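Bug: token stream looks shifted between consecutive jobs. Job 1:
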Amino acid sequence: MLLSEDPATLIRDTIDNFNIDPDKHAVARIGESLSTLQQSRELRMRDMLASLHRLSRQLNTLTSQHAQLTASSAPVDAAAAAAGGGPRRDAVDDEVLLRLKVYRSLGIEIERDDNNNNSKDGGGSGSGSGTGEWTRAVVRNDRKADVHVVNMDKKFSRYFYANYFWQTL
């Protein structure tokens, strides 16, 4: 035989020298970690499902509200389309109105030529919306209790009038 010792003694010595307790503890710790990880995943999954259900209900509510609002605005849209969509302004009108509003907030009131329109608008330089030229400006300065009436002629430039307005303010 190859072995000089008794096989039973050799097996007993081998069994005595094996120490499997650290391996058992490591396997137990790994099992606990896997269990904790699984619980964490399940908890996270439940939270995500609850959030999904909440968002789904919110989506359904908003969808129904949108449908109701669309249905209730349909007659108004149809009436607006039948009426021509209401007053429409182009970019030039918006620009002139904004310019007039700014000038009026500064205390400058611009008047159009009497023979074309005979209407008063507040503020602006240059021509209006094609119905008359700006001919007169009334500049009010509340701090100085001043009122200046300026007749706007074409012989002076816009630059001149702008400087004059700023000096009187």
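Job 2, same session, no restart:
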Amino acid sequence: MTATGLVKTSYPKEDITFLLKDVSEVFTESTLEEREKAVQTGSHYAERLPMEYQPSEEYTKLYHETVLKTKEQLAYLVGLVTRRIFMNAGTEDIVLVSLARAGSPIGILIHRYAKQMMKMEWPHYSVSILRDKGIDEKAMDSIRAAHPTSRIQFVDGWTGKGAIQKELTKAVNQLNKEKNMNLYDDMAVLADPGACAVLFGTREDFLIPSACLNATVSGLVSRTILNKLYIGEDDFHGAKFYGELLAEDLSNDFVDQITECFEATRDKVEADAVSTPVTAKRTWQGMKEVEEIGHQLYSETDYHLIKPGVGETTRVLLRRSPWKVLVNSLENPDVHHILMLAKEKNVPVEVVPDLFYRAIGLIHSGKET
């Protein structure tokens, strides 16, 4: 597929194609205060970009230590979910569509595993999906036109309470009905703590280190943008390329370190892939806990304000101004970076031992009880 005006990236072109319009020259970030005010007065979060968090030396060191400690486990989870994708699809003719940007590095790893360990060439695109706005329909039109009969496999990094899974299911149903696209909503993720995906590596609330950073672990690409001032009706959703962060970029280092562990985990992956179920039912267990917390802590419940799981809690600390963070233990290594970020941002942390998730971030509503 050839498309012009796409956002640049620091990833090699054989790993990924971001189907996102480049708005680097025209779009500027909002301060945290401006963005919070806009979101809380009815603007959609994708109309503005947050300022990119600049990690401290201590936090960057913790990120590197985490990658070192978890890369073999991550390689195993990548291998397991890749083989499950193949067995579930029942065909080699697969096209990966990752959900930008948390899904982008995971899509690259699945693409590499299929190529290196299974000798299968699965093209990989990354597209925008936004809560309450749906998936980028123009991007899906382009992918389907280039691959009319391929099995399209959606990929994300992890689940929280399942908002994006619900958005994807809605979009898939609509595109199948209106355009006969033959899409499936069986999104694949590395970690599914919310129990809302059917294809996953684990349902443990496991820290995927790419959650710890922003653009510098996502090919220097921003969050996706949908703002009518910059995105026309015939455009893909947009994104910026942060070329000024090139010196700090860890995007390729992250995927390369995990790729190097594929061979070491091959035997375990192959054995477990055939001895465990390929898919699992969605129980939405995480959403049940979110509803409970919503009723306890907010007088008027907006579940979007509750960000469950290690990945989502990390992201909310990087991008927004949480009111409080809940953890089930201060000792778990998967929350150490969360405790560091909370301290940097003066966000109180409360220990709730029987928490289903390892961490939950709570955003201000003005209606906390």
